[in-house]
Description:
Mean pLDDT is 83; it is low at 189-194 and 445-467. The N and C termini lie close together (6 Å). The chain has 17 helices and no strands. By secondary structure, it is an all-alpha fold. Helix 1 packs across helix 10, helix 6 (89-123) crosses helix 17 (415-438) and helix 16 (394-413) packs across helix 17. It has one domain (15-438): Amino acid/polyamine transporter I, CATH 1.20.1740. The chain crosses the membrane at residues 12-33, 49-70, 91-117, 129-147, 154-177, 197-219, 231-251, 328-348, 354-376, 388-409, 415-434. It is a multi-pass membrane protein. It is found in: Membrane.
Amino acid sequence: MKQQKQVSLDRDLGLWSALSLVIGTIIGAGVFVRQSAVLDDAGSTTMGLLAWLAGGILTITAGLTIAEIASQMPETGGLYVYMEKIYGRIWGFLSGWMQIIIYGPAMIASLGAYLAILLSDFFGFPSRYNALIAIGTIILVGILNLFSNRYGATFAIITTLCKLVPVAALIIFGLFFGKQGALGQSISEVHQSAGNFGVAILATLFAFDGWILIANLGGEIKNPRKLLPQAITFGILAVLAIYLLVSYGVYRAIPAGKIHSMGTETIQVIATTAFGNIGGKILSIGIIISIVGCMNGKIMTFPRIMYAMAKRNQLPFSKTLAYLHPKSHTPIFSTIAELIIVAIMIIFSNADRLSELCIFTVYCFYVMAFVGVFLLRKRNPNQHRVFSTPFFPITPIIAIFGSLFVIVSEIASDLPGVLTSFIFVAVGVPVFYYETKKHGIVEAKNEDAPIEEDDDQSDSSSVKGQN
């Protein structure tokens, strides 16, 4: 049988598609269900708003730092590629391994599980069908991403616009019809059991997580050296503005004590109070769409890491996983493999717990990537940068300390989970060396500077089919 003709990823995602993916991948259910948790830990509405602002600022500094690296390495794989080129193949592999085997599938499975609960409540399905509903929904979104990336990108734009409707309704109601003072309300009854401002910031950082996933599509974005930094920067800024406005609106609409007592039902109470039972239903639809959009972004981006690793022959069945469909130009087998892992997690494990365990490891790699900005500048002092991190070196230093804060907080609060996350990563070490030896790949001692590539040609190496 003749080998397949040269096939490459389609580089046809523009700024609006990239922006929608950034916003849609970040905004899931967090802004709707974490209002009470952040307020409880912060202790007052003023400190709650400051916690959301601090989390957003830390995320922006992280995004601006990564944007400089992304502008130099506009390739499919994102963080995996950055780690490989800055620190060497083994570190790149381990960052990718953690994302495709545990973190990515766990995040998708968690979204699916929560979405199934909402769908069951909305339509009155028995809870025993939740696992089937979660898997079915994930498969439907996954099928969409087996076609050209234009369909996934278009779906991201539609869901992002749809999810902004209930967000706008909450903001408008709170700002113009709320009767509470948004600032200065305290929660005296929970002061003794409340956490602290640092824990509140930590809760918001988890709600901001997902901003870096657009970098996994670096090989499919038009003029990525320019558009990728723009999408990351403006996307995070938009989410920060949305989170602050929603939180302010919530504090205006309901007294702080009631927000504490209602917990994750706070937003539902506001919608029902403002718009009646129909309003509550409409908000539920908005949250469902929000989660589906977030899920779509993750299903679209995480398989690209697997594809990029398979192209380098670093995974079992690399030849199959690196296959691109000749018509859709998408990594269909990597997408299917990721969906299978997700389904297994939904059936046999607690996906929420697994995703929590991997937060520590993700932030360890974030810190290394942020430090990488300094290393790249030192190695290539004269290199032209399409995008440079503003206020360097202050911005990456803030990003580094923000990530270290998450790491230290995780160690202090969940040491067994931290040790478990190390095990997940360690399992990848023998896999890496086995595949490296199998394919005769020589480990480079130092992956120096980013490889300059033409925007229209990067990541267009051929992927051949099976004989």
